[in-house]
Every structure is written in C-alpha cells, then in structure tokens.
C-alpha cells in the first residue's frame, strides 16, 4: 500500500466524524448604546439590564452596553438603529421627533410622581405608543426613566417663568421643549448631550435642564451657579430596537423583552435614590439650590397643552387619560 493510500484511509474516519459533528455557532452579538456617563441612572439601568438579559439568553446571544455616547449621540444612534448597525438604544426626549405622540411627555407637570408614571406606562404607553413606535421602525422593549428635569444656569435663580427671559438654554432635540421654553421667555437651542459641559463652560449656553443624575454625573455644578428645582418635565427613557429586531429569533426577542420589563422597578427605585443622594451632593458642591413657583409655571404652560391637544392626533384624549390616572 503506497503512502498516499495509507494517508487517505487514515483521514476518512476523521472526515466522517467532522461531517456528523454538530456545528459550533457563535452567540449573537447584541450591541446596546446610550449616552449616560459612568455612575449615572442610564449606566446603572443598562448594567442591570445586561446582567439579567445575558442570564436569560445563556449561549444564544450576548448583550454588550456602550455608554457615554461611544456609539454616537441620540440622533446618531437612532439612525444606526434604522441602518441595523446597532441593535438597541436608550433614547428619551428625542423620541418626540420620531412621532408627535411622544411629546405627551413634553407637557409640563403632566406626570405627578413615579407611581403615576407606572400607571401611565401600563395604560397609555404600552397600548397606544408602543404600536406607533413600532410602525415608525422602533419597537419598544421597555420603559425606563430619564427623570424629573430641573433648570441650572449661571445668571440667576429661576423662580417664575419670566426669570428665564434672555437666558441661552440648552435643550434636547424636539420642537416641543423649544416651544415651551420660548413661551417662558428663554432662548432655547438643541445641543447633543455630550457637548453640554463645554457649551456651559465657554458661555455658549447660560444654562441647561436635566434630571439630577445627569446634572451630577455631567459635573455641571462646576460650570453652573444656580439650580432651580422646577420638575417641569418628566422624561421616560425607552429601550428601543431597530432594523435588526425582525431578524432575531423569537426566543432571543422574548428574553430581551422580559429582561427590559424586569428592570423597570429597579430603574424607578434607583432613580429615587439618586435624586435624594445627589441633590445633597450638589448642595455640598456649592451650587445654589432654590424651589420654583410651580403654579406660575403650570399657568404659563396652558398654551402648550392647547397646542398639543389641537395638533397631535389623539393628543387631547391622551392628556385626559394621563390626568385621570393621577390618583
């Protein structure tokens, strides 16, 4: 028997075993982006989601989170979701640019507290806004939190809407927040979250409005003198998917949705703890904190409510539903 025949006969059993061996499949990679800084509510929420999701997914898929705008700002990530270059993102105010229905949460003082928000999530967001978002190409897996927003600036304490007159105020993307602060007399302008600190530091902007988590972890107390506890808007955060969602196996989708919903109470509890802890830290850091005249802000906001009810399809009904869920 020549050498070639001996080698061939030796290799045949090995080839046969390889042909019948089960293929080794790499886990599906789920890329998840958000703008939150280390330690922020977004970062803590994302970390908890990744932990729970990966436990549920086992070796089927692996979720990896990228914070601090590593995958781009909110607008960039929304485009990447559409293109299918990332899988999940955690947008907030920018969703009002996706569909006007999301601007429900641009209405000042419409959300009373986190218990109220939990009822809104089940009775309004899931049955009404989920289908709207899916039609726009952004399926929602869960509703988390950005939080109650407050105003900081370098000029003066804000007590009534007229105190905002002439202040250059950074706001997130979305026409309704711009409309609201214009009606109060401010000069609002949209700017990416990652650019806010430098804009405040250089005087391009006089102030901004954000939840306590972002104010603390964004270190705005270093470049702002006054913080006014306005609680003017509560902004949910939406865990959304994009173009790649349809291509995922159903068991992977189910695990991701279950994990997103399981995180919801953790987010609310963590958000409340952050508000309590870091408001105290902001005071210690030297920022001057004051309460606002909420009644004056609510009265000044009436035209915004009227415009939303008139211009947004179903807007009046949604406002009435949310108000009915207050108590």
UniProtKB/TrEMBL annotation:
Checking Pfam families in the record gives: DctP (PF03480)
Q: What keywords would UniProt list here?
A: Signal, Transport
Leader sequence range is 1-26
Question: Is NAD a UniProt keyword of this protein?
Answer: no
The record's Gene Ontology cellular component field reads:
outer membrane-bounded periplasmic space
Q: Which family is annotated? A: Belongs to the bacterial solute-binding protein 7 family.
One of the GO BP terms on file? transmembrane transport
Keyword Transport included in the entry's annotation: yes
Task: Report the NCBIfam families cross-referenced here.
Answer: dctP, TRAP_S1
Q: What is this protein called?
A: C4-dicarboxylate ABC transporter substrate-binding protein
Q: Which InterPro entries match?
A: DctP_fam (IPR018389), TRAP_DctP (IPR004682), TRAP_DctP_sf (IPR038404)
